[in-house]
User: What shape does this take?
Amino acid sequence: MSETNYSIEQDLREAIAMVDSLERYVQQDQLYGTVGSGGIFSAGNMPKMTIGGLLMRLRRLQALSAQLDHRQRDQFTQSQTRHEQLRKEWRVHYTEKMLYEANSRLDAMRTFFEECSNDPKLCARVYQPEVLRRTIAEEILIAAHDLNLDIGEISKKARATDSRLRRFTAPSDFVWGAGLETVYPADRFWWMYHRPPMPA
Assistant: This one.
């Protein structure tokens, strides 16, 4: 998982590729798209295309922009500008998919809660994907708030999800790579500073 061994260069590469794929993606129905031109070799080692995944990368690249060299900063600025253009051009499609994704990611965590109830050892081993799900949902909530969207129901679902998540986790060190810790303060992203304890 790239977040546990973070590379800002990889994050930038993925963000650029996702912005390049965004216009095609927002016109499609599926939640998870492909990054690249759609050919058999286009996706490579790229993550699946989602708006939440893109928002996550853009926000943390902005937060860590002092670490980018001049060439990387120019690439990032161009991608940010293109992202904003496409978000405005395809606003309805973009926001509908974004909010649908937040709901879907929060709903998907129900399986994890069932696993934690039935098998605490498995719960401790499979926590990282849930951290990513919850974090991307939060990135969407941040962006949706900035766009003045109605997020009352999704915020309520996020709080209910957090309430369940707290039952199965305990305080820990930051669960992703140390290079990301400044991007995710513990007051808002508390689940990154918790993990399910491994039973003896």
In short: The chain has seven helices and two strands. The CA atoms of residues 38 and 161 lie 35 Å apart. Residues 38-43 have pLDDT under 50 and may be disordered. The first strand starts at residue 170 and ends at 171.
